[in-house]
Write a structure and sequence with these properties.
3 strands
Length: 75
Amino acid sequence: MLITITQQQAPLRWTVHMDAWFVHFDSQAQAEAFVQRLQARLDAPHPWPSTGVPGSANKPVGYATPRLIRSGRYG
């Protein structure tokens, strides 16, 4: 994931870009704190996924796992 920070002039704000996603902040310090937390979470160890469907025995019939859907750019 490519993560960058840019400064917007009008109105003055900072934007963290994460590939096609972006988040606006009022200060550079807030943007940098967000990037540090995001990078720490990305670098953290993650368990290897199991081969089965996790928790499928505990889910009600017809249950669908929620998915994140990107519908466009926000600014």
